[in-house]
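Retro notes, item 3 of 5
We never archived the inputs for the pyridoxal-5'-phosphate complex last cycle. Fixing that now. Sequence and ligand:
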Amino acid sequence: MVTPMIRDPTGFLRQEYQALVDQSLDWKMRVLSGPSTPWCQIDGKRLLMFCSNNYLGLSNHPRLKAAAEEAVRTHGVGSGSVRPIAGTMDLHLELERRLAKFKGAEASLVFQTGFATNAGLLPQLAGEGDLIISDELNHGSIIDGVRLSRADKAVYKHADVEDLTRVLAHAEEHSPSYRRLLVITDGVFSMDGDIAPLDRIAKVAKDHGAMVYVDDAHGEGVLGEGGRGILSHFHLSRSDVQVEMGTFSKAFGVVGGHVSGSQDLVNFAFNKSRTWLLSGSHPPPVAAACLAAVDVLEQEPQHVARLWELTRRFKRSMKDLGFNIGRSETPITPVIVGESRRAKELSDRLMELGVFALPIVFPMVAKDQARIRTIMNAALTDEDVAFAQGAFEKAGRELKIL
Ligand SMILES: Cc1ncc(COP(=O)(O)O)c(C=O)c1O
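Structure as it came back at the time:
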């Protein structure tokens, strides 16, 4: 008699986790006790925050906190439903109206997160019989959105408009029956801090009749006039870039995603995006805090100006010290050290010296490109930035990176 093989249905959970631990690829959660301010309490230690996405320091801004508190008082803590049924509150509509005005778009639609925006909208904009053409370094939420779409996919070399042109021309020549072509790119690339050449991308896309979708998660609140984002940075119009996606979880300091563009786009997006239709809407304090963030961006331009002042100063001094800070043009400044082990050692030493800046290692970046990804924050003082530089210099010399 043959003994039946007994499967262990969940054994893979421990095995796969252990494999990550063995390669030091597992995530260890660092815990903030208190707000994300320049100096934070992290794992019980007072550290200078140097790697959050809270570019403008808005996550602890008094106007955002007051707006959230007030919304709890007036609207409660939950919306009670998904947006299309009973979960659209006046706060959600007001946020969309104000955001569209800030962005200079006909309309905006707010999603629960930036990830939900890409994962929900992309599969509707393109499907079977369409082609999505994507930068090789696009964010994971775009990659997942593309996978869900069932469209054909082509990848062009990072920020390489010539390669994009080649892909578009090839599609035109060999597959003229595609219904739609969609070119998609991050606006600012999150690992390197470089900016997509969106002006040239838009031009090539127009020449080939393709729609352009930009993910401006790291450009909003950072690039362009008063932080209006990448379209403003390149002086592009809505006919150049038809779909602008963004997030409230970075410079806006709260959480949530959005798509901005024409009224047609928004009508289409909210009637079709499954992540929007089938998932609960933002709690009132979230919507109110996002609304207050738009007000702050409009009325307090000093935060964006300060972010850039500190960014320029930090980049200059890190370069002068001899660090490899890559090709960044934005407040994301990678400090590239090579092997994963080196990046981890540098991060650990920085933490001992009082600076919180985590390593980014393979597979998030190439094996020899491990780095500490620093992100500037407008709420830092001059002394804070000097403190961080000092720590980098000391650790860099001790570890023979300098
Ligand atoms: C380029 C990019 N797109 C989208 C997202 C997702 O945004 P959210 O945090 O709002 O889900 C992120 C966040 O890491 C991002 O960096």
